[in-house]
Specification:
The structure holds 3 protein chains of 3 kinds. Chain B has helices spanning 2-29, 34-39, 46-55, 62-74, 89-94, 99-124, 129-143, 146-160, 176-202, 205-212, 217-255, 260-269, 273-301, 303-310. Chain B is mostly helical. The two termini of chain B are 15 Å apart. Chain C is globular, with a radius of gyration of 26 Å. By secondary structure, chain C is an alpha+beta fold. The chains are: A mainly alpha, B mainly alpha, C alpha+beta.
């Protein structure tokens, strides 16, 4: 049995995959957290107990209690409702960033690996240059340039996320090129695009899934950091990072504000990372993070 | 080997050129005019505005400004700060120059041994309670944002226990919390990598052979396996260092450390183009240098890399 | 032998440790500032932080105490010229500059000339000199001699104007020893201190602190502490923790969030000083840029949809008072009888419907502009307008320079902004913010009747008569709903109990002249 065969997730192996997945407690925990976060985000318009933007001057910084399960913020807005909507905001940003980064990164990486030459050099140099700038500084610069808001956050984070995926894709495709089944396809006269999409892509999908599920964690955290610095999601839309910043002035007297948002943020990222780790161990223990 | 080093050095050039061009362009597209900030409430004073614009060379075409910027850069002159009128950029960042890299380097130095040790232990005890515990801690270390963690550590260690100062930058004790906070995610990241690599190496033929030869487990791990784990770990140190430098932006703001990270944020918000450009250049320089060093080291320990780079 | 050596080592070590840890003899007052001062010289001074620092180094003819009372500083007596077009100042004898030279009439003239010199980037003080005879000629470089300022004797100086300026003696000038420009060049201020104040500039470590040293020859008596250390702390959260850990003696509170937090913490509240600020906060409604604002009913509807009592109690935790007029209490010219603006959602709805926008229908899109630190306030307004009027107002959180430029250019249709008094007279608010000729009239409000009253007040020397004109003008502005006052902030500072002599005034901190640390 060759090493490459281990990488493949055979369609018939799904049952096997599920069995092994269920046997990995941390992956199951991660999956549960992610599923919960996604569920809350999707259902937030219906399950949020109050209007997330409704201010109430009579209930400023209320402690958690009967009327407000998680208390209220500086404007008397319901923290629980804001957390729920915040989940939707965070996940929307994260998924959009990943979608863009995956499409751009995979396309660039596959093409670079297959064509080599100047295109490869170009993509890799571009990636190098992007890597040469600290991610957050680039994101902050872009955000300052375009003005804060959700589209800005998505764009700036996608900009720093695609090179990693391009590099990973390139290295995986490069190693696949020496595999027998690719040689066979070339000999049969299959078009490069077909080889890449039909034969190579399925083989690197597990790696991309792992990479993406770990990437979500990073993107959620980066969005929170931008919002924490005031460059991300804007009022009246809630963001977990912004909620932490808003809660800091009251950390000692009303820790629930920072705690609630910090916990939601931390646990969600933990969930994505656990899921990513689990998937990596199951799908391909050889995948390296780059 | 010399040829390899030279090639890597040449590879640095486009990065630095791109850094110059991109920071210049980015800063010019940022909304908000620095002269307006300088004028403050004197906004209506057209004479003064013209004078300032010509003093700072902002009345010339952008291309001329760029050529002038590059020419001065070659002489180590970053121009004048916008935020502190008349003060050279070099003077604004001089005190801060070594603070961020020192903090990042200290955090890296702290993270490497801790990370590798945790990762190796977890790998050797794969699928035990210890492994699961370590993995969970690592995931948490990577997941909790440092600005949130910082608030709790300050509250606990500085205020409640009084072990370390709250903030500032006057003694080495001020560096403890920032360095530890920065080191936590770095160590967790390294530990995860170490664990992954170790698991992989332990399955390799030569380890099996070593075991089959009847070598003691300790010898197998330390002599054969760990060595091969260290090499790939080395390569990610550049990336981690970059992450740490980035981390100083938030950490220095939280801990009131007058380093490049905090000045960078302040300059971006204050539209101080020259200072922002200088700092981004410096960050890029630190980052490129350490990546270069890592590449060279990697080339030294693994001849295949040198050969592959030639293709 | 060996033991003796060891003992010596230990003794040295002990001395070293004691020397380092030692009894704390540092008698510096440590104060937080949230950014580096933009400048440290008296000529270009134009920002609040620089003002907080330089107030201790440089002085004017007069100063203002915490009750808004004008008291003599470098001038002992000032009298208006009979034709009301000039002032005569008798200066304080025995005043020494930090440079060692004596202060006199020639320095007043020289300071003004330095401010007006072509190519000097003069800050806030410049606007106070415009009416002096010959100011324009000096500014244009035609002459170096400021004709309107006459040195009568060593300690008497006369200033002549082209138009009456009744408030000239209370302007906050920063007189300095101009000889330093000759001696040290244009960047003299980083090397020497040239003021007359109780502290002299000693060092500025950018990003870390500004240090002022006590001036032993100060005419009011040498300060009882060694110096002032203004520590740069951008994060307020950090500033509080530093104060609590004893790393700050005075905690200056800038934001509402922090002020509220301080008042909720029993320990901090006990050490807090509060005073109503000399700062108005209002809504700017530009009638040229947003058509519905042309209708007085719409302006009123927006203004009475905000519950000022609930807001100052809730959002500000009591650290603000509703503002109904455009002058803050405690400032000469304030009218305590100004009409209250009641929160009246029913009337607001009706007014908007009468204006042709029932339930907010038909209103063109509207955004309210402001800066990030004030986003809570605008988020509250926007929610009120949505709830009361059914109008969706988006928040436009802008970057500071862009916001200011757009305000100064009169390009912002709708904004919430403030104005801080620089000298204690109601004219500062009325003429600068609402006179149609002022560049700081950011809502571009224009009312000839209002302008006429202000123009008259400007040349009226008699205080009660002038104040009456202020009241009339203010009433005109309010009845027209040309402005919409919202609140007056309360200044908050927290001071360690072992520190005395720190006084918080409506126009920020008084100089730390009489401070003691026990």
């Amino acid at each position: 049995m060759s090493a490459a065969a281990e990488v493949l997730v055979e369609p018939t192996g799904f049952a096997d995959f599920r069995r092994r997945f269920v046997g990995t407690p941390s992956a199951v925990l991660g999956f549960a957290i992610v599923a919960f976060a996604v569920g809350v985000a999707l259902l937030s318009p219906w399950i949020a107990p109050a209007d997330f933007s409704r201010t109430n001057m009579a209930f400023i910084w209320e402690p958690p209690g009967n009327d407000f399960a998680l208390g209220t913020d500086a404007l008397g807005r319901d923290v629980l409702s804001r957390l729920m909507v915040g989940a939707a905001v965070s996940l929307t940003v994260a998924l959009s960033v990943l979608a863009i980064a995956l499409v751009v990164g995979t396309a660039a990486g596959m093409t670079a690996a297959w064509r080599g030459g100047w295109f490869d050099a170009f993509v890799m140099r571009t990636a190098d240059i992007t890597f040469a700038f600290p991610d957050l500084i680039v994101a902050i610069l872009v955000a300052a340039m375009l003005g804060p808001g959700i589209p800005t956050v998505i764009l700036s984070l996608a900009l720093v996320s695609w090179p990693g995926i391009a590099r990973l894709t390139r290295s995986l495709v490069l190693s696949l090129r020496n595999e027998l089944f690719v040689d066979a396809a070339i000999v049969c006269g299959t078009k490069p695009a077909t080889i890449l999409l039909r034969h190579c892509l399925p083989n690197i999908v597990p790696a991309l899934i792992v990479r993406a599920s770990v990437g979500v964690g990073f993107v959620v955290m980066a969005e929170a950091t931008l919002s924490f610095l005031g460059l991300g999601v804007q009022e009246p839309l809630p963001s977990w990072g912004g909620m932490i910043r808003d809660g800091l002035p009251a950390l000692r007297s009303d820790p629930h504000l920072t705690l609630a948002a910090g916990t939601a943020l931390g646990v969600t990222i933990i969930g994505f990372n656990l899921l990513g780790d689990g998937l990596r161990d199951l799908l391909d223990p050889r995948i390296r993070e780059r | 080997m010399t040829a390899y080093v030279l090639r890597r050095l040449l590879g640095l050039l486009p990065v630095l050129v791109a850094a110059v061009v991109l920071t210049f362009v980015a800063n010019r597209f940022v909304p908000g005019d620095p002269i307006t900030i300088m004028l403050g409430d004197q906004g209506g004073n057209a004479v003064l505005e013209r004078k300032l614009r010509s003093e700072y060379g902002l009345d010339r075409p952008v291309t001329v400004q760029f050529v002038d910027y590059v020419a001065k850069l070659a002489h180590g002159d970053f121009g004048l700060s916008f935020r502190y009128p008349g003060v050279p950029v070099t003077q604004v960042i001089r005190n801060a120059l070594w603070i961020s890299p020192s903090i990042a380097a200290a955090a890296l130095a702290l993270a490497i041994p801790i990370g590798i040790a945790l990762g190796v232990v977890a790998a050797l005890r794969r699928n035990t309670l210890a492994d699961t515990g370590i993995v969970l801690v690592l995931v948490a270390g990577l997941s909790i944002p440092n600005f949130a963690l910082a608030a709790f550590l300050v509250w606990g260690f500085a205020l409640k226990l009084g072990w370390v100062p709250v903030a500032g930058w006057t003694s080495w004790r001020h560096a403890i919390l920032p360095v530890v906070l920065l080191a936590i995610p770095a160590a967790a990241y390294l530990a995860r990598l170490a664990r992954t690599f170790m698991l992989e190496v332990l399955q390799q033929d030569y380890v099996r052979t070593a075991r089959a030869k009847g070598l003691s487990e300790r010898l197998v791990v330390w002599r054969h396996a760990l060595r091969n784990v260290l090499v790939p770990i080395l390569t990610v140190c550049g990336v981690i260092f970059g992450g740490l430098i980035t981390g100083t932006v938030v950490i220095e703001t939280v801990f009131n450390i007058p380093g490049l990270g905090r000045i960078a944020i302040e300059s971006i918000f204050a539209r101080d183009y020259p200072v922002t450009m200088a700092i981004v250049m410096l960050f890029t320089f630190f980052y490129a240098t350490i990546n270069f060093a890592v590449d060279v080291l990697y080339g030294l320990v693994d001849p295949r890399i040198r050969l592959e780079a030639r293709r | 032998m060996k033991a003796a050596k060891l003992f010596r080592c230990l003794a040295v070590a002990a001395v070293f440790v004691v020397g380092v840890v030692g009894p704390a003899q540092a008698r510096d007052l440590r104060i937080n500032i949230n950014a580096d001062p933009e400048m440290i010289d008296p000529i270009t001074m134009s920002a609040l932080i620089a003002g907080d620092v330089l107030r201790n180094v440089y002085q004017s003819f007069t100063w203002v105490d915490e009750n808004g009372k004008v008291l003599p500083a470098l001038a002992l007596k000032w009298t208006a010229h009979p034709d009301n077009l000039g002032w005569r100042f008798e200066l304080r004898p025995g005043v020494k500059f930090h440079t060692g030279r004596p202060f006199g009439a020639k320095d007043v003239k020289a300071s003004f000339e330095a401010l007006l010199a072509p190519g000097s980037k003069a800050g806030l003080q410049l606007q106070y000199l415009q009416r002096i005879v010959g100011a324009k000629d000096v500014q244009d470089g035609k002459t170096k001699d400021l004709a309107g300022v006459k040195v009568v004797s060593d300690l008497v100086v006369e200033v002549r104007f082209s138009a009456t300026d009744v408030l000239f003696p209370i302007y906050p000038f920063l007189f300095f020893d101009t000889q330093v420009i000759v001696d040290k060049g244009p960047n003299w201020f980083m090397e020497v201190s040239a003021g007359t104040g109780p502290y002299k500039f000693a060092a500025w470590r950018r990003g870390e602190n500004v240090y002022l040293q006590a001036f032993k020859d100060y005419y009011g008596g040498a300060p009882k502490i060694d110096g002032l250390r203004f520590i740069v702390v951008p994060s307020e959260e950090t500033a509080v923790t530093m104060y609590e850990a004893g790393e700050l003696d005075v905690l200056m509170v800038a934001s509402t969030d922090l002020a509220r937090r301080v008042m909720r913490d029993a320990k901090l509240r006990a050490e807090a000083k509060t005073v109503s600020a000399a700062q108005i906060t209002y809504l700017g409604m530009n009638q040229n840029l947003y058509a519905p604002f042309k209708d007085k009913r719409v302006r009123e509807a927006f203004c009475i949809s905000i519950d000022r009592d609930a807001m100052t109690r809730g959002l500000f935790g009591g650290l603000a008072q509703p503002l109904y007029g455009q002058i803050t209490p405690g400032i000469p010219g304030y009218n305590p009888a100004v009409k209250k603006i009641a929160y009246d959602p029913e009337r607001a709805k009706r007014l908007l419907a009468d204006a042709g926008y029932p339930g907010g229908r038909g209103m063109p899109p509207l955004r309210i502009a402001n800066l990030a630190p004030f986003r809570n306030e605008v988020a509250y307004y926007a929610d009120q307008w949505k709830q009361v009027l059914g109008v969706t107002v988006d928040l436009d959180i802008m970057e500071r320079a862009t916001f200011l430029r757009s305000l100064n250019a009169g390009e912002t249709p709708f904004f919430s902004w403030g104005w801080t008094a620089d000298y204690p007279d109601a004219l500062y608010y009325l003429s600068q913010v609402w006179h149609s000729k002022s560049s700081f009239n950011r809502a571009r409000y224009s009312n000839p009747a209002f302008d006429a009253l202000i123009d008259r007040a400007q040349v009226t020397a008699d205080d009660p008569t002038r104040y009456k004109l202020y009241h009339e003008a203010e009433a005109l502005l309010l009845d027209d709903w040309g402005t919409c006052g919202i609140f007056v902030r309360t200044n908050v500072a927290v001071v360690k109990p072992n520190v005395t002599g720190v006084t918080l005034a409506p126009m920020r901190m008084l100089p730390y002249e009489k401070v003691t640390i026990n």
